[in-house]
Each structure stands twice: as structure tokens, then as C-alpha cells.
């Protein structure tokens, strides 16, 4: 059973999400602001967080940034249509996805399942007979058995979405993927309007992997086509 933290100061929204999730077999925990959410994650084995953006005491953006200092669990922001800037900021500081209010319960469950599926895949449920797989390109080393990434020997902390994008590109050095292809392969969803979301995560990846993100060595843009992992010279 997966444990889902619902963090929202609107009791009606918390109640509705609780009904959707528990009826689908999830165990839910509740928080009314970012500070309480941080405590719940510390005190319980939380597998995914649904995080409202606008809350008292500590908002969802600051709470997400704080969680990302120590946690790689999926975080889905709950945002109003007028909070487009917050969506981008949230993705920049480590949120994995967002759902716009008012939300469709079917969409909520689909996105939760999609994020948990990726999270458990990245969580190292490796068969004993499988040999560790380490992908290398230049100074980047991705150990897919340990689910770890290092750059020039230094460990890099990635969110599940960032890890999956890097894994896709590392497995296919030199191949160009459009934003739509990356979205469909990583998010496992239709790619309508996905360009901005993919661009934000690529930018965040570059900030973690590149010496100079504005002049990347590894993740290159192929103008008009998409992104690729540049093959490092031997």
C-alpha cells in the first residue's frame, strides 16, 4: 500500500482527494501547510505528496524546495489556473508534475499512478540476477542498479523525472528526441503542450550536470528538433 500526503489548507479539497485516493487503495495523510507537510514526511513513510501552492505559514513552493534537500519522492503541485508562474517555479525547484484546479478525479488518479510507477521503478527493485548497469559519457556516470549519478566523481541528486530523462538520453547517445517524444517516454502521457515542461526539466538537469549550463557539454539542443546527449570524445 502506498502512502500519499495531501497538503492543502482547503478542507473540502483534502476531503475530496481523500475519497478519490482511499477508494483506489491508497493510504492518505493530511497536512494544512508546508511546515506540517515537512513534519509528516519526516515522521511517516510517505511515497508521494500532493502539494497545494498557496498556503499559510509555508507555501507549497518553499515546502517543495525544502523537501528536495533530502527527499526524492514524487511531488505533484495543486495549482489554480492563474498560477502559471508558480507552476514553472515549482518545476524548477523540483516538483515532478502539477494538476490544475478544479481537477478531474480520473486525472488525479492517473497522474498519481504514473508518478508512483516511475518512483518504484527508480527505487532499486532490481532482480538479484541482473548485473549492475553503469552508463558513462564523459564525466557522467549513471549506475542504474544503485539509481545514482555522479559527475566527475561527485554525486548528483536528481528527482525521479530528471533521472528518467537522463537515463533516456544516456541510453541513446547522439540520438535526437523531440520534446514530445521525451514527454511521452518519461511521463507516459500524451505530449500535448509538453514543450515548456520538458524545457524546464532539461534546464534543471543542466544546472546539476554542466559546468556552464548556458554552454552545455552534454545535453545539447538541436534547434527545431529537440535534445540529445552529446557523445563525449574518447
Give the overall shape: globular
Low-confidence segments, ≥5 residues, pLDDT <50?
Answer: 124-132
Order of helices and strands: EHEHEHEHEHEEEEHHHEE
Average of the residue pLDDT scores:
87
Q: Return the structural class.
A: alpha/beta
| CATH fold title of the largest domain | Rossmann fold
* Structure annotation, total helices: 8
Q: What is the total tally of β strands?
A: 11
Largest β-sheet summary: 5 strands, parallel
For the biggest β-sheet, the strand order reads 2-1-3-4-5
Give the termini separation: 46 Å
CATH class of the largest domain: Alpha Beta
Q: State the fourth-level CATH superfamily of the largest domain.
A: Response regulator
Structural domain tally: 2
CATH architecture of the largest domain: 3-Layer(aba) Sandwich
How much helix is in the residues? 40-55%
Q: Strand content of the residues, in percent?
A: 15-25%
Task: Please give the radius of gyration in angstroms.
Answer: 18 Å
Structure description:
The chain has helices at residues 11-23, 34-43, 60-67, 84-92, 105-122, 160-171, 179-187, 195-209; strands at 3-7, 27-31, 48-52, 75-79, 97-100, 134-137, 140-143, 148-151, 154-156, 219-222, 226-229. The chain is of the alpha/beta class and 234 residues long. The chain folds into 2 domains: 3-122, Response regulator (Rossmann fold), CATH 3.40.50.2300; 134-229, Arc Repressor Mutant, subunit A (Orthogonal Bundle). The strands form 3 sheets. It has a 5-stranded parallel β-sheet with strand order 2-1-3-4-5, with helices on both faces. The chain has a 4-stranded antiparallel β-sheet with strand order 6-7-8-9, with helices on one face. A two-stranded antiparallel sheet has the order 10-11. It is globular, with a radius of gyration of 18 Å. The termini are far apart. Mean pLDDT is 87; it is low at 124-132.
